[in-house]
Amino acid sequence: MFLVRAAGLAGAAATATLLPAAGRATPAMMQEAIRRIVGEAALQRGRVTLDVPALVENGNTVPVTVSVDSAMTGNDRVVALHIVNEKNPQPQVISARLGPRIGRARLSTRIKLADSQQIVAIAEMQDGSFWSESADVVVTLAACVEDLVR
Amino acid sequence: MTARTLISVPAGAKRGEVVEIKTLISHPMETGFRVGTNGTPIPRDIITRFTCRFNGEEVFSAELSPAIAANPFISFFVTASESGTFGFEWTGDNGFSVSETAAITVE
Fold first, then answer.
1. Domain membership flag for residue A40
2. How far, in Å, CA of B69 to CA of A106, rounded?
3. For B34, which of A88, A106, A148 is closest by C-beta distance?
4. Is residue B91 situated within a structural domain?
5. What's the pLDDT tens digit per position in A28-54?
6. Verdict on whether the full-model pTM lies above 0.90
7. In what helix (H) or strand (E) does residue B40 lie, and over which residues does it extend?
8. Among A29, A47, A121, B86, which one is most buried in terms of CB atoms within 10 A?
9. How many domains does chain A have?
């Protein structure tokens, strides 16, 4: 069933041989995921810093830090941070909601990357604007689907 | 449900100081996209949601996906305005649910 969910083919009977092709997100799917996050608002570049190594030896654990140039007061607050990717089985990585007690717009985590690809960080501000930054990562050992690739 | 957690919250802080909170929990974060040795798919088993509350009020929450690395690590920054208790909660597939608390004293 996991397969069906990944490919967005609800109810379709997919066989194991279809896995590698069906189980990958595409840049178009990432754009779709970004559209779902942003809605009708414009996605502007800037303000966000996406700190991720340019060359990753092991895609199973990649440290990522997203920070946003924001005073975190009044209307100049970050209310949500999102990370999406191009080529993992699913475009979503993490969506975090930041409450009023958050003192600095900065989030660190560790992610999996299935391939060399672009990842995008999106910050949603209190005033309804969206800001983004992208980073290209080269991965030498892939994660997520490693058993399928070999 | 047992899972080892590692939480870093400073024991004390000055009023208004921004402190970093780091959390780590042991969990395989099995993606559901992998196939086992006998060719059968390994079912998904991930933590789907992490929540941090301060004195019961939500401070930070995150929706996690299979793309989060095993043993999820999350860190964020909170303004220390009063003494109290942070509550951390991880929930996920197969009824996974773990809660922890950490106290902070603000002067």
1. yes
2. 19
3. A148
4. yes
5. 888 888 888 888 888 889 899 999 999
6. no
7. none
8. A121
9. 1
